[in-house]
Request: fold
Amino acid sequence: MTEPRSEVLFLGGRAGSGKTSVASALHELLSARQVKHAVIEGDTLDLAWPPPWEHGLAATNLRALWTNYRALGYRRVIYTNVMSVLETDRLAAAMGDSPHVTAVLLDVSDDTMLERLRQRESAASLAAHLERNRPRRALLEQEAPAWVHRVPTDGRTLDALAAQLARLTGWVPDGA
Reply:
């Protein structure tokens, strides 16, 4: 018997766009409907000093985590990371089982982004985020493939965003 194909939702967007909050809301929605899934916060898969980015540690760690989830029967994962929508092929390959991919680029205005980051960041990390955030927004918008869904988060509730993503993935039927 062939195992069902995995499915992954890549949530990307600059800092302050709502990736972690939306993933958490989607997790709550799916849990309430008893839809088996996992959430992986990609930013923590290679969070170290000095940064090990050039070694591909995030993809290696994703493979290890997903192997463990698969062994327990999980087939759906929400993966959050700023640049994930630019790396869908590499990340999907790291999962090792040719998952069906849905990718969403969350967007947010500069004013809302600044408000959100001021609530969670220290002065030093706020300055660092702001320095790279505006150029990153432009890079993501320009480089994300046309098939990536663009979803603005300004003025929207987490519940509404989670419901939209649940419908985009097909993990919750329309109208549910």
